[in-house]
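Below is how a single chain appears once it has passed through the pipeline. First comes the sequence as given, then the structure the pipeline wrote out for it. We keep one example in the README because the format questions we get most often are answered faster by looking than by reading.
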Amino acid sequence: MVTLNDILIAQSRIKNVAHKTPILTSSTFNDLTGLNVFFKSENFQKIGAFKIRGAYNKISSLNEKERKVGIITHSSGNHAQGVALSCKILNTRAYVVMPSNSTQKKVEAVKSYCAEVIFCGETTDDREKATQELIDKYGYTFVHPYDDDFIIAGQGTVALEIFDELKDLDYIFIPVGGGGLISGCSIVTRSISPNTKVIGVETEDANDCYQSFKKKELVKLNSTNTIADGMRTLSVGRRNFEIIMKYVDDIVTVKDDDVIEMMKFFLERMKIVVEPTGAVASAALLKNVLSLKNKNVCAIISGGNVDLKILNQWIG
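Resulting structure:
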């Protein structure tokens, strides 16, 4: 299992590549919720999301032979961009398998980093099948979006930055897709601030981790239906689930409408653009799903990559 030391090594490895992102506050949001909330804003990260952290940590750790053959991954967008930019920085070829329903802006961003995009079906199974076929044919080196120790360690650096600035946090709320971010951040939290409770948040129609957590066994969905494209994975990774069960205190869910309401708040009151997945953790605080009062809480905004035309349809 990934350790705090692995995450500290990752922090050293990515320090000249990833930004140290700001922590924002809103007195209006605090008044609405009765909480003292801090927003860790990875929407200001390179590629507009936290995924550059894990991707660069993984790819920079590969040997020359592994990089030379070319790197391949599958992703709906943010991990794809993280891999593409990391490969560009490290002068390595990148191949990205993306579902056909990926947002156009994310596809364009991946291509802008000189990666080759290969489209597949819309499910995680479709992505994995298409990726494996290309690996079998060309021998590419695979970089998993979340079920990988180096990816988990890289994502955990988000929490290192949080606890470097914030003390006495009662809760940290983290969005859950494949589980890379929450697994890495929960390891840091338990090591540095053991009294801080870790809460994962999903949307109701992509609640594989919620079900898995409650049943204490890995649940795989047949399909998902959510605006939060980073949560369309059918199940969390096995490594990730093991860490979640060990270090996470609870998993909760919110509705897509709650996410849209939160995105609207970010735009109107805080003047920042946040993608649906990035707004999920904060939406759980807006709806106060755990009925908290007078607590110090950090919510991770995982990204801000959203097509403005689609955004207008949601909140216009």
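The two ends are 45 Å apart (CA to CA).

See the next section for the split statistics.
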